[in-house]
């Protein structure tokens, strides 16, 4: 008794067969794309089919960069740009599979996206690339010289001016700022950076006034001091103050007005 193929095996071809079919279609489409007698419309159609044919490759590359703060859909879009570049640059005569050629281009485009997103201030691409070059050359020279290279030594090695080296180094200050809400993962329960930043102390604004008014308060009579304390420190009404001090509410009102006017005039004269 022979084993008969299952329904799933009949519907879904083996993986190797699917890969071979993709390679065959890809080669045929690239042949159409590179043929001298192909019309512009046919070229456009072949290019679009190649992109759709290799979108699974883009998704596979994009999934390698998941959980890095960027939505997978955005990474697929960026990777598709790399796929388009690979399609436009691929040459059948290279003798390599298109997927082998396209993968580094797709991954490079995604990495470039992360690098660009890391800059807090928009820096020209030439400075971003120069900064990366400075980093690699600096490590090389540090190893050979046994010390950190000077800007002039970096400039001579890279083939640019000292001013450009300085500009490239300064551009690093615009890279990858940290949110004030970020905390220190190394410590449990550590607060954010924002917690460590001081805030303006509102009481400092009134220090000068308090220090200026102290000698004026000391010069007041005991009854006036007590009325001011009851009114402004205990928040008592004039009626309550009158009952506390043993005078009429009208008298309390006149004493408050007279005392405050006297303090105001004394402060203004000082």
UniProtKB/TrEMBL annotation:
Keyword annotations of the record: DNA-binding, Sigma factor, Transcription, Transcription regulation
Protein name: RNA polymerase sigma factor SigF
Transmembrane stretches, start-end: none
Pfam families with a match to the protein in the record: Sigma70_r2, Sigma70_r3, Sigma70_r4
PANTHER family noted in UniProt: RNA POLYMERASE SIGMA-E FACTOR (PTHR30385:SF4), SIGMA FACTOR F FLAGELLAR (PTHR30385)
InterPro entries in the cross-refs: RNA_pol_sigma-70_dom (IPR014284), RNA_pol_sigma-B/F/G (IPR014322), RNA_pol_sigma70 (IPR000943), RNA_pol_sigma70_r2 (IPR007627), RNA_pol_sigma70_r3 (IPR007624), RNA_pol_sigma70_r4 (IPR007630), RNA_pol_sigma_r2 (IPR013325), RNA_pol_sigma_r3/r4-like (IPR013324)
Span of domain RNA polymerase sigma-70: 74-87
Alphabetical list of SUPFAM superfamilies matching this protein: Sigma2 domain of RNA polymerase sigma factors, Sigma3 and sigma4 domains of RNA polymerase sigma factors
Annotated stretches, region: Disordered: 1-21
Keyword Ligase: no
Residue ranges, compositional bias (Basic and acidic residues): 1-10
Protein's UniProt keywords contain Transcription regulation: yes
């Amino acid at each position: 008794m022979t084993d008969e193929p299952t329904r799933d095996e009949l519907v879904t071809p083996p993986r190797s067969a699917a890969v071979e079919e993709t390679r065959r279609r890809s080669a045929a489409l690239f042949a159409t794309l590179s043929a001298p007698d192909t019309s512009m419309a046919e070229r456009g159609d072949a290019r679009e089919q190649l992109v759709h044919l290799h979108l699974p490759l883009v998704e596979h590359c994009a999934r390698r960069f998941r959980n890095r703060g960027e939505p997978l859909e955005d990474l697929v879009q960026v990777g598709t740009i790399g796929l388009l570049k690979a399609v436009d640059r691929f040459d059948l005569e290279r003798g390599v599979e298109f997927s082998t050629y396209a993968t580094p281009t797709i991954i490079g485009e995604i990495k470039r996206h992360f690098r660009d997103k890391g800059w807090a201030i928009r820096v020209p691409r030439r400075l971003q690339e120069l900064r990366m070059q400075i980093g690699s050359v600096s490590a090389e020279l540090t190893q050979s010289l046994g010390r950190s290279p000077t800007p002039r030594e970096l400039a001579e090695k890279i083939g640019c001016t000292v001013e450009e080296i300085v500009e490239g180094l300064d551009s690093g200050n615009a890279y990858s700022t940290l949110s004030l809400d970020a905390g220190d993962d190394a410590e449990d329960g550590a607060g954010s950076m924002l917690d460590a930043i001081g805030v303006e102390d509102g009481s400092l604004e009134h220090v000068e006034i308090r220090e200026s008014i102290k000698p004026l308060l000391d010069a007041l009579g005991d009854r006036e001091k007590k009325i001011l304390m009851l009114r402004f420190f205990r928040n008592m009404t004039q009626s309550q103050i009158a009952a506390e001090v043993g005078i009429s509410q009208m008298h309390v009102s006149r004493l408050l007005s007279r005392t405050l006017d006297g303090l105001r005039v004394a402060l203004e004269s000082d």
